[in-house]
Structure formats: C-alpha cells, structure tokens
Specification:
DUF998; 6 helices; transmembrane helix; membrane; transmembrane; mainly alpha; 204 residues
Length: 204
C-alpha cells in the first residue's frame, strides 16, 4: 500500500524536511548564526521567525515523526522492544508539537524564563530522551527480521556519539559558544539513525 510505504519512509522524510526547514527559516532571520544559536531560537518569542519556524518545522515534523512511530508500532510479528521504540518516536513527535506551540524566550540564557519557555524546555528534554532511548531498545531487542545485527551495532554507536556531542553542547552553554553547532550534530546523528531505520523497513 502507498500509505504504508510513505509511513515507513517518513523517518527519512523527517530528516530531509527538518534540514531544509531549518535552512529556510534561518534565511528569514537576519544574522542568524547556526554555530552559536539553537534551532529553537528560530521560533523564539519575539524572533523574526517566531511564526514561520513552527509552521514549517515543528507542526509538520510532529506529524511525520508520529507517522513513522505508528508505522513501527504496526509492524507484524514484531516484539515489545521494537514497539516501545515506535512509541518513543511518537512521543518525540508530540514533543515537537509542544516545543513549537510554546516558544522559548528570545534570550536562551535568561535567568528568569517565562512559563512558555519552561514548557518548551521540558518538551525539548522529552524529545531528546525519547530519541536517545529508542535506539537503545533497538540495540538490545530480541532477534527480529526487522533488525539486522549491523543495525544493532549502529544503534549503540549512535547513542554514544549523540551523547558525546550533547555533553559538548552543555559545555558550550557555559561559554555561550558553539552551542548550536553541537546541538545540531547531536540531533542530526539521531536523525541519521531514524533515516537508516526507515530505509530498512521500506526494503522489508
């Protein structure tokens, strides 16, 4: 079925979409610095792209992530670990919606964040954990036709690499330098995992 194929491919679609979406949104944000600004700053309260960014990124991406998670949950002859992984990807999608609806403050280093910013931060944390834990379940899932051995090994490597650059981002927070750079590397590493998973399922 065409819908099923699109759902399976949506992990890859999400990666392509967000890459293009962030680039386009940044074009409407004068002097936006990808290396030193968070992706969420594109949708921050009072930013030039406050409305544009969630409209072209968070809202459609939330749906695409949920669609891919649903495709994984619906797999025949699957196992609980793979199902949990799919649920975590759906949670990531819901978090993406929430992070878009509740904008962060324009100053990411503010000492007194607004309620919207706090909700945004919690949504971001849930997104981060969901897409970090999902590969762990895949790496240690029972034997399955959907998960080749090399993808288990890749999943472990993805978790370590993503965590490493996440720690680098937190170090960058103290210096207020290269936070955007490390955030993007950490997140896009997980998106690459999502894309690979998507391509594996499409070929089944």
């Amino acid at each position: 079925m065409l819908l099923e194929s699109i759902a399976m491919l949506s992990g890859l679609i999400a990666t392509i979409w967000i890459t293009i979406g962030v680039y386009i949104a940044a074009r409407f944000y004068p002097h936006y610095d990808h290396a030193n600004q968070f992706c969420s700053e594109l949708g921050a309260a009072g930013s030039p792209t406050e409305k544009i960014s969630p409209a072209i990124n968070n809202y459609p991406l939330g749906f695409i992530f949920c669609l891919f998670g649903w495709a994984i949950v619906q797999l025949d002859d699957s196992n609980i670990a793979i199902t949990i992984s799919g649920i975590l990807i759906i949670i990531h999608g819901i978090g993406t919606w929430a992070a878009g609806y509740f904008p962060m403050d324009k100053d990411p280093y503010t000492k007194s964040p607004t309620l919207n910013c706090k909700i945004h931060s919690w949504a971001g944390l849930i997104m981060l954990l969901a897409l970090l834990i999902a590969p762990i379940f895949i790496a240690f899932s029972p034997e399955s036709i959907y998960i080749p051995f090399w993808f288990r090994a890749t999943s472990i490597a993805i978790v370590f690499l993503s965590t490493y650059y996440l720690l680098k981002m937190y170090q960058g927070l103290k210096k207020q330098k290269l936070t955007g750079y490390y955030q993007r590397i950490s997140y896009w590493i997980k998106l690459i995992w999502l894309s690979i998973f998507s391509l594996i399922l499409v070929q089944m």
